[in-house]
Design a protein that fits this description.
6 helices, extended, mainly alpha, single chain, about 140 residues, about 45% helix
Length: about 140
């Protein structure tokens, strides 16, 4: 199949809609192109945190990390990240957790929280009858 270019041409607005919009004072909203222009004008300053947005550092004991030390450490980390190039030779591998491991971890967490084995609980339930009928009630 050959590729086809599909384009959209907006039809001209009817005269009665033009008159109504003029009477009301309607203004066209932003289009996709105007939104793209606004994004192009964005700078790095727009994405930086102001002093009001900075985290609050609380020093409880002497020897804790102070605000100045925290900012210095953050700047050093940024410099290191900028200086070191990314190693593109290492493949990125995403792994799903195996179902067996997640099922075992859920069972172990249930056992530790309840104090009894889950298997023992199910055996007890199977041994009991859920409904019981007295023979005396059915005597006619």
């Amino acid at each position: 199949m050959s590729k086809r270019n599909i384009t959209f041409t907006k039809p001209e607005e009817p005269n009665f809609l033009k008159r109504i919009k003029e009477q009301v004072g309607y203004k066209e909203g932003p289009t996709v192109n105007t939104k793209r222009e606004a994004l192009d004008r964005a700078t790095e300053e727009d994405f930086e945190d102001t002093s009001e947005e900075q985290p609050t550092v609380v020093v409880l004991r002497p020897g804790d990390l102070s605000a100045e030390e925290a900012t210095q450490a953050a700047e050093e980390l940024k410099k290191q990240a900028e200086e070191t190039p990314a190693d593109l030779n290492i493949p990125v591998v995403f792994k799903r957790p195996s179902k067996a491991k997640t099922a075992q971890s859920q069972k172990s967490s249930k056992r530790s929280s309840s104090g009894e084995d889950l298997d023992e609980k199910t055996k007890k339930r199977k041994g009991k009858t859920l409904l019981s009928f007295d023979d005396e009630e059915h005597d006619d």
